[in-house]
Amino acid sequence: MQRCKYGRSSRRHRPLRHDFAVTRGSQTRFAAIRARLEAFEPRPGWRAWLYEFLLFGFKQGWACLFGGLLLGLLVATHLFYPAQAPLARYDFLALAALTIQIAMLVLRLETMDEAKVILAFHVVGTVMELFKTAHGSWEYPEANMLRIGGVPLFSGFMYAAVGSYIARVWRIFDFRFTGYPAEAVSVALAVTIYVNFFAHHWLPDIRLGLFAVLGALFLRTRIWFRVWREDRWMPLLLGWFLVALFIWFAENLATFSQAWIYPSQRNGWTMVHWSKLGAWYLLMYISFVLVALVHRPRSRESRAVSYGTTGGVGSQS
User: In this structure, are residues 178 and 300 in contact, taking their beta carbons and an 8 Å threshold?
Assistant: First the structure.
């Protein structure tokens, strides 16, 4: 099968898979909605292209559900939360985020595997928060009770939102890969990046070298995803950059809402410096590798095998 230069497969209109014979814990309520949307038959031509574009946006929005709700809470409470409320705003955010997380599990809007990923992100993120706030990298300007040291508990959910998005988008778009490095190598690089976030306070910062290794390791890696009827692809390095850019924009909203602030924002809000985009890129890589330990990257060839056995490919999202 030939592959198109612009990131689409030449195999057209392959049948959808309506195979939901998976364990109950791996399905969400979105599965039935997805099946109906993918079964829709618009007229060929521009209508089909438009429908696929809208379906892509809808699925991305669904993958962002937890992060979007949390970001909305940050902005809304900054604008409207009563200053004299008996419950501190940061504590309200922690309880609200926990409520959303429980509701998503109870309502089967999220799988248990995704909940495990979110828990891992809480641990990884909280450890980094404790260290970075102690060294003045950023700070939380409001007082509250539910905190560990100088870190409010709601901060862990912000890292979890990133993990939630990656886990959900992986499942919803049924990610497959070509040229993905060995797991041991990718994990070793992620650990080194994580350690450097701490060690550069005392030792030389090696992040430029880490960027070089990351680029060389994943230069030929493609991520294949299915929006509707055809496989699409993009360089994985580009995909990480686009997500990191989106997180950087979200971070600007979060610092505007005083969820946390950088030293340069103590006397009034300013845009987060572009250099933070590089930090988010590296953190994005760590996040991706953590999720990969749960979902296990599958080759694109495995999708072709599944066509021979199930009549099509989709994800039970």
Answer: yes
Residues 6+ apart with CB under 8 A from 265: 255
Q: Determine the Cα–Cα distance for residues 233 and 199; give it in Å rounded to an integer.
A: 36
CA 106 from chain centre, in angstroms, equals: 21
Residue 12 is predicted with a pLDDT of: 45
> Residue 147 and residue 31: Cα distance in Å, rounded?
37
Cα–Cα distance measured from residue 243 to residue 237, given in angstroms and rounded to the nearest whole number: 10
User: Could you read off the pLDDT of 10-21 as tens digits, one per residue?
Assistant: 444 444 443 333
Q: Is the pTM of this model over 0.85?
A: no
Polymer length in residues for the chain: 317
Q: Where in the chain are the domains?
A: 51-302
The alpha carbon of 195 is separated from its chain's Cα centroid by a whole number of angstroms, namely 21
What would you report as the CA-atom Rg of the chain, rounded to the nearest whole angstrom?
21
Quote the CA–CA distance of 229 and 16 in Å, as a whole number.
7
pLDDT less than 70: residues of the chain: 1-29, 302-317
CB within 8 A of 168, min separation 6: which ones?
Answer: 62, 63, 65, 66, 110, 114, 317
Find all residues with CB under 8 Å of 19, minimum gap 6, and list them: 310, 312, 314, 316
Q: What is the model's pLDDT at position 182? A: 95
Predicted confidence at residue 1, as pLDDT, reads 42
> Rounded to 5 degrees, what are φ and ψ at 313?
-130, 140
- The neighbour count for residue 23, using CB atoms within 10 Å, is 9
